[in-house]
Amino acid sequence: MPPQLYVAVAVIAGTVLISLGVTVVLALRIRRLRAEQERAVTRAHEEFARDMHDLVGHWLWLASIKSELAYRRAAGDARLRGELGEALQAVRHAAHAVRNVSKAHRHLSLQGESMRAQALLASFGADCSVRVDATALPREVSAALGTVVREGVTNMLRHSTVRTCVIELAEHDGLLRLTVANDGVPGRSPRPPAGDGLGNLRDRLARLGGTVRVSAGEGGWFNLVAEVPRNFSE
Asked: pTM for the complete prediction?
């Protein structure tokens, strides 16, 4: 075989091998992109379910609490219509949250939820001390910690007889620590509430490199503590 033919065969063989290599690389990249896309879709579905629990569960529970409170005050209470109006407004919030759940969680913030928690607890005769400086927090961190406050307050109204609540944010060496504590479980050991709420919080904080835990304090205090780096790695 002439040398020129050897060269031509070698060039063709090399070209084929390079083409095969490029094809394999592209196929692997496409497979990886599809896997990433599937994971993204799964995360989106999980976030949707979590937001449905957080938003709708919160407002519907608030509606039932307000309705019960209104009926308790019905005998000779001139504020009945106001209380029932608040219950109706809560139900409307729930319906609105269902329609706009994909948008509603974007507006969640630690500062906003802390102020709402203070006002809500005050309507039930409980004192709520808020020591939170949420300025300059990354939006994702503020939203996640806001969810912790909302879940904590919802559960303390559901499972305890809260009279005093403390919501406090502290920072040390770049680590944010949010504590939501209440004195509503005297005489018995505080236990984590049943359901998916705590698990959802842990999942949400874990995505930011954070943790959530509950603990019993002295005098019937129940502590919900969330920790997350201020500057998390995405």
From this structure: 0.60
